[in-house]
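Quiz preparation item.
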């Protein structure tokens, strides 16, 4: 795989530095996104995509500042991981248990109600969208969501509670 990336680079110095970065950070990138994706194969694909992008943008990136490149790798990989999850779950119908948290709001019976629920979740502030997505749509427990997002469990539980209230306000006619 490394040889595929190296072909994209022009100078021997670039190739040598890229190889150093690849050897040092490729598996760290995988470990960084594995808790999000819960799949070794998907995590490896995200790492490959991330290093492919690095090889494409290598001339633009401050090449000798390894700490900045390391940060760039982790941010890009996490963003790609979230994008993979969004694509993976975007086409699935919302299961009944995903909306039971709305207490009085019945499980969606029509495609229109499913669309309304997805639209309401999309209108939540981003920090609430992520906890709702991970907890209700992907089935993670609150403490697992906390680990994935680097938050305290109490913070996740509080955000879930606030998100439920906001969703009720948006979806339940009074």
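Solution:
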């Amino acid at each position: 795989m490394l040889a595929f990336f190296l072909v994209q680079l022009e100078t021997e110095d670039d190739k040598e530095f890229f190889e150093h970065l690849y050897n040092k950070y490729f598996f760290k990138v995988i470990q960084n996104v594995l808790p999000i994706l819960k799949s070794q194969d998907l995590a490896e694909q995200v790492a490959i995509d991330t290093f492919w992008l690095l090889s494409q943008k290598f001339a633009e990136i401050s090449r000798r500042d390894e700490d900045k490149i390391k940060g760039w790798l982790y941010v890009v990989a996490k963003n790609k991981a979230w994008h993979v999850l969004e694509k993976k779950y975007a086409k699935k119908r919302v299961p009944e248990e995903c909306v039971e948290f709305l207490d009085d709001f019945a499980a969606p019976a029509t495609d229109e109600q499913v669309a309304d629920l997805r639209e309401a979740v999309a209108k939540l502030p981003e920090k609430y969208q992520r906890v709702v997505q991970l907890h209700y749509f992907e089935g993670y427990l609150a403490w697992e969501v906390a680990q994935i997002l680097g938050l305290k469990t109490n913070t996740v539980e509080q955000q879930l509670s606030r998100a439920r209230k906001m969703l009720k306000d948006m979806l339940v006619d009074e």
